[in-house]
Specification:
732 residues, single chain, 22-stranded antiparallel β-barrel
Length: 732
């Protein structure tokens, strides 16, 4: 296992351990017989590091030089300190992962090592078992869930649509991975402090410093960026981080029908952390993200302009060795302007002007108490939300929409303005019942009162996790619980004409897993069962979702499942062959279905079999990587070649009735760095879909009047081809 993995296992046992990624490398491998502090001390000694206890917390520092028999000068005597300021409040570095959680943790170095589309390192999550993807969206669908079932948190602040090209399948992350210290991806059984989403969590912690360089300047095919950081102050040590990035995503929009366009974006962040006392830190910052997208086809035009502002402030307080607290205040403003125009008379025509403005003020308070061998987590959150929507549109979806029983002519002029409060509280305990068995009971309570023309909604979500040490190398896990998902203030489906929120959805989940590790080998296995209830209506393009004007297409239909069911299992094996070479082999089986009008129907993204494999060779200043993804083809809807005049085909009779060609992508990456005096130069290249395979996206249909009815001709649509990303980074 790696040294950070050993530390994480000890943190899960209840040991409070702080360390700097500048000191502890994720590439350091250790071999231990037992996971305890003695094993950690021995591993640290090999790298001239040591473990010291300060204020009830174990801190990893550089080892002092051997004694010479002479006392050190007074000016050189100092208490041991951490090599760098840890991201934000220490509460986010407490154990509390949960023994029954399915979580994958990546450092910035590990994210960069895996080849990804457009060198977007957050896409590393798409290679995890249980993830459905055809390579377009950077937002993962986790274990059969919808895209909106993912919660994204950064430094304790919930993010809203943190992806560029948000109106075109969220193709690129809106967070520069060069400013990230670590990424935790939960695919099941996540702790109760995470609420209001049903399938998964991405918990991002920002980086203050990971090496001896203060500034990075980078230029690449998709992003030009600069980030800089530093420290100041002696009595009150402080750290700061600034980041700015911009780019053009034209090469990522090849999957939509467009002849020309300039999909530009930019994002920036500013953060600061100040240690006012040994037990009290404050941190604050802001972030801005912008999408400026215009597409012009021969007969179609579309634009999407999105601006997002975040401001936040946090305080970390440690009143005692066992008790820690974090308070976070955040402000969000999100504004979207979306326009669509079609100048065709057939098969569709019309226009849509859509506006959305969201404001949110949130206050969150988290507590951690370590009492004996029991870890307690509890906290609350309160939010004020305000939304302002506007949809003015006149659309003719053509005869094909009428064949599907869909509304052909649409005229809308709606402007709902929901506002109100939401929030909740949680409690979670983790204690060892005996030397082998650990229990983690938890419960959440949440409410929302911004629902239009509805009473306040309340939800109670009980959860229970169990972990059993079968032997020194094997751990068994079990997680059961209920997960609720209300529609957020930003999720009113006004773009499709709805003016009311649906009641909160829920999912009952059971996950049984096993972890085995010995020497260079590690294996994880999970079996899961998810039963969904109180499903909301959702809108999909059932032929081909990768189009320029999705809301105006004839195949845009509302699906209203009475319930849904997802079951499957994930297998994940990893091995470190020797010092420079490591690899993963992952397999997933998934069956995801909706119950619609009394029939069980496959979800489009229910990819039955999935295999992900990667090999990474890393030595000194060179990294080479190879990754392969194969999975069963997604589902799509196929119509008969001839439809008699006046016939209506019920959507549920043809929905997802055909499987597309199996998906395959071979990706490679290479990185090399040189030390040039006090500077470092890195060059990198990622090639996605190396073979240029034409992976299928869906099927479009041409309709033609013929005697007695309509002739319907299918037209296969494909996804991204080969995508090359080149870049260079100067650090000094």
């Amino acid at each position: 296992m790696s040294l950070p993995e050993l530390i994480r296992l000890l943190q899960q046992q209840g040991h409070l351990i702080l360390y700097s990624t500048g000191l502890v490398s994720s590439s350091w491998q250790v071999s231990v017989d037992t996971v305890d502090l003695d094993a950690l001390e021995q591993a640290l000694h090999l790298h001239q590091l040591e473990l010291r206890k300060q204020e009830g917390v174990w801190v990893i520092t550089r080892a002092e030089p051997a004694a010479t028999g002479l006392p050190p000068p007074a000016a050189m005597r100092a208490e041991p300190t951490v090599e760098t300021v840890i991201v934000t409040g220490s509460i986010h570095h407490l154990p509390a992962v949960g023994p029954a959680s399915t979580v994958y943790t990546y450092s910035a170095e590990e994210m960069a090592a895996v080849p990804t589309l457009a060198s977007d390192a957050l896409r590393v999550a798409l290679r995890l078992p249980g993830i459905s993807s055809v390579g377009v969206s950077a937002k993962p669908r986790i274990r059969g869930g919808l895209e909106d079932e993912l919660l994204v948190i950064q430094d304790g602040v919930e993010l809203m649509e943190p992806f560029h090209l948000a109106d075109y399948h969220s193709a690129y992350s809106a967070i520069d991975y060069h400013t990230i210290e670590s990424l935790d991806v939960y695919t099941g059984g996540f702790p109760a402090r995470y609420g209001n989403r049903m399938s998964g969590v991405m918990d991002i912690r920002n980086l203050w410093r990971d090496d001896d360089y203060d500034t990075d300047i980078g230029v690449s095919s998709f992003a030009d960026f600069i980030n800089t950081r530093g420290e100041f102050g002696v009595q009150h040590p402080a750290s700061w981080l600034l980041s700015y990035r911009q780019g053009d995503l034209a090469k990522l929009t090849d999957y939509i029908e467009t002849k020309s366009g300039e999909p530009r974006y930019k994002d920036s962040t500013a953060r600061m952390n100040i240690a006012l006392t040994e037990k009290f830190d404050v941190s604050f910052g802001g972030a801005y993200s912008q999408d400026d997208i215009d597409f012009k086809g021969e007969t179609e035009r579309a634009s999407s302009h999105i601006d997002t502002w975040y401001l936040w402030a946090g305080a970390d307080w440690q009143p005692s060795e066992a008790l820690r607290n974090r308070m976070t205040l955040s402000w969000l403003e999100f504004e979207r302007k979306k326009e669509q125009r079609s100048f065709d008379t057939e098969p569709k025509g019309g226009f849509m002007d859509y506006r959305q403005k969201i404001q949110r003020l949130a206050l969150r308070n988290d507590w951690n108490l370590l009492h004996g061998g029991t870890l307690l987590e509890f906290g609350w959150q309160a939010e004020y939300n305000a939304g302002d929507y506007s949809n003015t549109s006149v659309i003719d979806r053509g005869e094909l929409a009428a064949i599907l029983g869909n509304q052909q002519l649409i005229a809308r002029d709606i402007s709902p303005r929901p506002d109100g409060f939401s929030g909740g509280a949680y409690f979670q305990a983790e204690w060892q019942l005996n030397s082998r068995l650990t229990m983690q009971p938890s419960v959440r309570w949440d409410f929302q009162d911004y629902y239009l023309q509805r009473d306040t909604e309340y939800q109670v979500s009980p959860r229970l996790g169990l972990a059993y040490d079968i032997n020194d190398s094997t751990l068994g896990r079990l997680s059961v619980g209920r997960f609720y998902q209300p529609e957020g203030i930003q999720e009113l489906q006004a773009v499709d004409g709805l003016t009311q929120f649906y009641p909160p959805q829920h999912s009952d989940q059971v996950i049984a897993g096993i972890e085995w590790q010995r020497g260079r080998f590690k294996f994880l296995g999970d079996g899961y069962y998810k039963r969904y209830g109180a499903q909301k209506e959702r809108f999909e393009n059932i032929f081909n979702p990768f189009v320029l004007l999705p809301e105006m297409e004839p195949d845009r239909v509302g699906l209203y499942p009475s319930k849904a069911l997802v079951k499957g299992f994930d297998l994940d094996g990893s091995v470190s062959f020797n010092e420079p070479l490591s690899g993963h082999l992952r397999y997933s089986y998934m069956d995801a279905r909706d119950r619609i009008d009394g029939q069980w129907l496959d979800r489009r993204w229910s990819q039955r079999h999935t295999v992900n494999a990667d090999m990474i060779w890393q030595r000194d200043t060179v990294t080479l990587s190879l990754a392969v993804t194969w999975h069963s083809g997604w589902h799509t809807t196929v119509l008969p070649e001839f439809v008699p005049m006046g016939t209506v085909i019920p959507v549920q009779s043809v929905l997802n009735n055909t499987g597309l060609r199996d998906y395959l992508s071979i990706d490679i990456g290479a990185r090399k760095s040189w030390e040039l005096g006090s500077a470092r130069v890195q060059v990198y290249a990622d090639i996605s879909n190396l073979t240029g395979r034409h992976n299928q996206a869906g099927i479009d249909f041409d309709i033609q009047d013929v005697p007695g009815g309509y002739e319907i001709t299918p037209d296969q649509e494909t996804l991204l081809g080969r995508v090359i990303s080149l870049g260079v980074i100067l650090s000094f």
